[in-house]
Amino acid sequence: MAEDEHAELGPDRSLLLVDDDAPFVTRLARAMEKRGFAPITAESVAAGKAIVQQSAPAYAVIDLRLEDGNGLDVVEALREKRPDARIVVLTGYGAIATAVAAVKMGATDYLSKPADANDITAALLSTGEALPPPPENPMSADRVRWEHIQRVYEMCDRNVSETARRLNMHRRTLQRILAKRSPR
User: What's the pLDDT tens digit per position in 32-73?
Assistant: First the structure.
């Protein structure tokens, strides 16, 4: 890659990658290095926060669900240390509620897994002025409904009766929906 292609990165190219999927984080680190970043990897919330305390990176890609906790804790720690950091949150669950929470906590963007290095680079370097193109495969209406039901179910601490009451739905209907796999 020519040097001018890295110009939009700026002088600080430090990138923190936090994901508990070791093969994925290793591949992503290699791919991001080829794109001009200087990646540091962590496989847990604790390791990610330790790196942030040591030297807060300019960029970060953080998985939402990690074995030892929530990736939003790393987002919060990085925002405190370095308010100008560009942070992308990855989620394997595509949950709208958690994505909104991530953006409210200071993430620049969020992407559903599997996200490739090109998508991640575009999200890290986007200025937010131009809207991104619409997704190639947007969620179906059934999937959006299912996501909403899941969010309310989680907010009610997985209490089926309370969730059914809040959604104005019969409890048995809700149980049938929850028992099924998520729609595509």
Answer: 999 999 999 999 999 999 999 998 899 999 988 888 888 889
CATH of the domain at 150: 1.10.10.60
pTM for this prediction = 0.66
Whose CA is closest to 61, among 83, 39, 84?
Answer: 39
| 148 and 106 inside one domain | no
